[in-house]
């Protein structure tokens, strides 16, 4: 006769249950772990979450584009027609038209066109007579392609790193115009003579002309542009011929001269219309010298100039 022992029965049931569980684990391998599934693993520490290779892969430009105001497409402008019509407009209307064109050219980041528009605006805001202004504007439009302005027409690209060769005949033409220019137009022709040397690769000569123009006509609006171009020439001279972004070979004596020109520009034009451009060149100057904190500050300041969208892309690249 079998005797019933409650404690023994419970122990046998436990053993059987354990055997069944063990068998189940064997059958389920490798799909079962004694430590549980992934949601039972220890929590990650903050340091683990902040590992750089786990951060979202967004650039500074993408972040700014997502958080900034949506761009309004600029209306198309026939710059050549608008410029040709300027002499027929009253002074205030002509300047308003030029301001509109300048804003559109900034949005398109068209530097050669901006250079032309700034020159023409200085012309119409200055003391030149109506006849003088019309004649100068006509010459500038006829020679626009010499200064890189195409008015939307395709232009063959020069090989990378190459500048057009100097054009003695064109330079002589500017000299003739300069010789007969009235005092109101002389600053414009002096600037163009320096620009022709710059475009022809004669940077030291162009810098000397820009400095002379800025010194001889310090109150003329062209003086700010001339001083900025002199700054660019100073940076060019501060870099040795074998200079590269990875091997920055510098002329320290020329860097000291460039620093003085930067100080002069920011003292004279703390709110100048080319202030953003000057910040970019100061950033380049600081980068050359290994002063990355100053370089970063300059490029970041460029990003905070909403009226100058033409600076945005280059500034984003340098910040990153």
Model description:
The chain has 320 residues and is an all-alpha fold. It contains 15 helices and no strands. It has helices at 6-28, 46-49, 60-67, 79-84, 91-107, 111-125, 130-142, 168-180, 186-199, 203-216, 222-238, 252-268, 275-288, 292-302, 312-319. The N and C termini lie far apart (90 Å). Mean pLDDT is 84; it is low at 1-34.
Uncertain spans? 1-34
Alpha carbon gap, first and last residue: 90 Å
**Could you say which overall geometry the principal axes of the C-alpha atoms support?**
globular
**Per DSSP, what share of the residues sits in E-state strands of 2 or more residues?**
under 5%
User: Using only CA atoms, what is the Rg?
Assistant: 34 Å
- What structural category arises from helix and sheet content? mainly alpha
- Determine the number of helices (DSSP H or I, runs of at least 4 residues): 15
Number of DSSP-assigned strands: 0
Layout of SSEs?
Layout: H1 6-28, H2 46-49, H3 60-67, H4 79-84, H5 91-107, H6 111-125, H7 130-142, H8 168-180, H9 186-199, H10 203-216, H11 222-238, H12 252-268, H13 275-288, H14 292-302, H15 312-319
Helix pairs in contact: 5-6, 8-9, 9-10, 10-11, 11-12, 11-13, 12-13, 13-14, 14-15
Features:
320 residues; mainly alpha
Task: Give a quick summary of the entry.
This protein is mainly alpha-helical.
């Amino acid at each position: 006769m079998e005797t019933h022992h409650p404690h023994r029965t419970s122990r046998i049931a436990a053993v059987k249950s354990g055997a069944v569980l063990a068998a189940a684990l064997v059958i389920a391998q490798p799909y079962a772990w004694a430590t549980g599934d992934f949601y039972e693993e220890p929590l990650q520490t903050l340091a683990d979450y902040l590992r750089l290779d786990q951060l979202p892969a967004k650039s500074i430009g993408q972040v700014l584009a997502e958080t900034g105001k949506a761009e309004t497409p600029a209306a198309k402008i026939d710059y050549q027609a608008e410029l040709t019509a300027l002499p027929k407009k009253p002074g205030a209307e002509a300047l308003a038209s030029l301001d509109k064109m300048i804003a559109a050219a900034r949005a398109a980041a068209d530097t050669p066109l901006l250079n032309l528009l700034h020159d023409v605006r200085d012309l119409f805001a200055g003391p030149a007579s109506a006849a003088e202004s019309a004649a100068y504007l006509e010459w500038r439009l006829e020679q626009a392609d010499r200064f890189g302005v195409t008015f939307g027409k395709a232009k063959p690209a020069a090989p990378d790193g190459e500048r057009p060769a100097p054009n003695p005949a064109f330079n002589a033409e500017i000299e003739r115009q300069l010789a007969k220019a009235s005092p109101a137009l002389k600053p414009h022709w002096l600037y163009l003579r320096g620009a022709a040397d710059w475009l022809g690769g004669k940077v030291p000569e162009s810098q000397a002309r820009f400095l002379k123009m800025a010194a001889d006509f310090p109150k003329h609006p062209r003086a700010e542009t001339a001083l900025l171009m002199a700054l660019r020439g100073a940076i060019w001279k501060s870099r040795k011929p074998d200079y590269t972004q990875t091997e920055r070979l510098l002329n320290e004596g020329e860097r000291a001269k460039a620093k003085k020109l930067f100080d002069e520009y920011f003292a004279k034009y703390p709110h100048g219309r080319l202030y953003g451009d000057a910040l970019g060149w100061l950033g380049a100057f600081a980068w050359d010298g290994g002063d990355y904190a100053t370089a970063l500050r300059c490029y970041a300041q460029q990003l905070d100039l909403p009226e100058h969208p033409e600076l945005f892309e280059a500034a984003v690249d340098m910040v990153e």
